[in-house]
């Protein structure tokens, strides 16, 4: 099945691209969620017509993401957790915890944009990447302290 993506999807493509996918993925995920449209002649012609609009929208989103990255880059989050021996945490600090701490400081972010390869399980200072746009990545300083 060939579809035209309406938004960026990791591992598949960027908005406005024509991609070939499996039928089930398109029918069950992309099309119902309006993340893609079928690639018929009419939609392809419309895509060619809207390329300039898509480019302008992406530039606007990138500019907004860069402004947000500057604000978030100066923020340092302090998270307090209970610790055991050798400064190991009971549990861990996840992307959801970091997103909630940012929200408490007035910075609303999507937790799915936080790139945390594995949950934080030690006390100390850590850097976490926040992907705001495909070209914009902000670094967040997370300080995990014992309670």
Descriptive key words:
Large ribosomal subunit protein bL9, Ribosomal_bL9, rRNA-binding, Ribosomal_bL9_bac/chp, Ribosomal Protein L9, domain 2, Ribosomal_bL9_N_sf, alpha+beta, Ribosomal Protein L9, domain 1, single chain, 147 residues, 35% helix
Description:
The strands form three sheets. Strands 4-9-8-6 form a four-stranded mixed beta sheet. Strands 2-1-3 form a three-stranded antiparallel beta sheet, with helices on one face. The protein has a two-stranded antiparallel ribbon with strand order 5-7. Helix content is 35%, strand content 33%. It folds into two domains: 2-63, Ribosomal Protein L9, domain 1, CATH 3.40.5.10; 70-146, Ribosomal protein L9, C-terminal domain (Ribosomal Protein L9, domain 2). The model has no long low-confidence stretch (mean pLDDT 88). The longest helix is centred in the middle third of the chain and has 33 residues, at 41-73. With 147 residues, the chain is of the alpha+beta class. The radius of gyration is 20 Å and the shape is elongated. Strand 8 (124-133) and strand 9 form a beta hairpin. It has helices spanning 23-30, 41-73, 95-104; strands at residues 2-5, 18-20, 36-38, 76-81, 88-93, 114-115, 120-122, 124-133, 136-146. It is built from three helices and nine strands; from the N terminus they run ββαβαββαββββ. It comes from Stigmatella ashevillensis. InterPro entries: Ribosomal_bL9, Ribosomal_bL9/RNase_H1_N, Ribosomal_bL9_bac/chp, Ribosomal_bL9_C, Ribosomal_bL9_C_sf, Ribosomal_bL9_N, Ribosomal_bL9_N_sf. Belongs to the bacterial ribosomal protein bL9 family. One of its GO terms (cellular component) is ribosome. Binds to the 23S rRNA.
């Amino acid at each position: 099945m060939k579809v035209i993506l309406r938004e960026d999807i990791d591992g598949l493509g960027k908005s406005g691209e024509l991609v070939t996918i499996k039928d089930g993925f398109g029918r069950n995920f992309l099309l119902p969620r309006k993340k893609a449209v079928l690639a018929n002649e009419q939609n392809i012609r419309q895509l060619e017509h809207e390329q300039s609009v898509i480019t302008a929208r992406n530039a606007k989103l990138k500019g907004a993401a860069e402004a947000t990255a500057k604000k978030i880059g100066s923020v340092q989050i302090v998270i307090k957790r209970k610790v055991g021996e050798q400064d190991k945490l009971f549990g861990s600090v996840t992307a959801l915890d970091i997103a909630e701490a940012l929200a408490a400081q007035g910075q609303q972010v999507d937790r799915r944009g936080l790139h945390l390869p594995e949950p934080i399980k030690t006390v100390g200072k850590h850097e976490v990447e926040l992907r705001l746009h495909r070209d914009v990545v902000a670094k967040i300083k997370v300080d995990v302290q014992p309670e």
